[in-house]
Amino acid sequence: MPKDPAALARRTLLAATAATTGLAALGAAQAQSKTVLRISSPAVPDDWHAKMWTVFKEYLDKHAPGAFDVQINLNASLFKQGAEATAMARGNLELATLSAFDIAKLVPEFSIFTAGYRVRDSAQQQKIFQGPIGQSLFKTVSTIMDVTPLATAYLGTRQLNLRELRSVKTPADLKGLKLRMPGSKEWLFLGEALGATATPLAFGEVYMGLKTGTIDGQDNPLPSVRAAKFYEVTKQVVLTGHLVDALFITISNKCLQGLSPALRQQVMDAAQVAVQFNNENRIKEEAQLLAFFRNEGLQISTPDVAAFRTAVHKAYDNSDYAKAWPKELIERIEAVR
Ligand code: KDO
């Protein structure tokens, strides 16, 4: 034992450093042995499909402790909206929520689910994707895109949300209205089919666009209008109900195939539990939100939905999209009750 206090201090410091380094090495080894699951979503933290990722993470932490390092990146902070599928196929991202619009770019028949007034409600949507139609479509997605959809989240029924009051009965009443849509031709087609002038903008820029007037309106399900606070910068909701929208929890095949069968099952179960959380809360909230918006001073108006349906069906039926829809698939989808 050195008598010199300085030598003693040096020794103590060396021992402490060694211990810290050892701990750090142990931590790094543990972190290394965990499978990192990077998630990217444009959702705002207060929306149900953002919160569902915490449910996903908690499920895995509980049922597969120490196996995964789940990293949730919201507000498009990791990848910009629409870039997730490519990032996953390239191995730069493990999980995301893809829309039918993201998938339709590479799997043409998936554009059935981007078309307005095709799916009736959330119950039909869930049955379609949980049954044989979904299974077969998801297999095609996996083969073509190298990513696998695991579960279907109900994003909600899309409605119009306008900056200024406007009498909207039919698509003709939207003529010249700059309607923000997400930035892809599949989305813009839907906006034009509704009769508006579709204007592409990322979700994260919509609030400012509405506030400053670079756009006249946007379309989203009511829970997202609430969570992203669009009601603060708009005056009207028009209940067109033009798209029963879905988001698919999707995993890169590279990640999925790298998991043991047991861990793969845990991830699939976690995805199911997460969408269940989203779907229950979103459906419940969707039914209550009109009262909330009225209270916030918004006018809620009901258009001639049949006129919108007819116009939107006509636009799609006359488009190249419909050419990729197998007749038998459309009939099977319509028969799902
Ligand atoms: C939107 O940009 O309007 C949209 O609703 C499109 C969806 O596919 C999805 O990307 C969603 O935004 C985001 O998750 C934000 O809620």
Describe this structure in words.
With 337 residues, the protein is an alpha/beta fold. The chain has one domain (31-335): 3-Layer(aba) Sandwich (D-Maltodextrin-Binding Protein, domain 2). Helix content is 50%, strand content 20%. It contains 14 helices and 9 strands. Strands 1, 2, 3, 4, 5, 6, 7, 8 and 9 form a 9-stranded mixed sheet that branches. Helix 2 (48-63) runs antiparallel to helix 11. The protein is globular, with a radius of gyration of 24 Å. It binds 3-deoxy-alpha-D-manno-oct-2-ulopyranosonic acid. 3-deoxy-alpha-D-manno-oct-2-ulopyranosonic acid (KDO) binds at residues 41-43, 47, 49, 81, 99, 182, 203, 220, 224.
What's the topology here?
Elements: H1 5-33, E1 35-40, H2 48-63, E2 68-73, H3 84-89, E3 95-99, H4 100-104, H5 122-130, H6 132-145, E4 147-162, E5 178-181, H7 185-193, E6 197-200, H8 206-212, E7 217-221, H9 222-227, E8 236-252, H10 253-257, H11 261-295, E9 299-301, H12 305-317, H13 320-323, H14 327-335
Parallel strand pairs: 1-2, 1-3, 5-6, 5-7, 8-9
Antiparallel strand pairs: 3-8, 4-7, 4-8
3-deoxy-alpha-D-manno-oct-2-ulopyranosonic acid (KDO) binds next to loops.
Q: Can you tag this structure with a few keywords?
A:
globular; alpha/beta; binds 3-deoxy-alpha-D-manno-oct-2-ulopyranosonic acid; nine-stranded mixed β-sheet; 14 helices; 9 strands
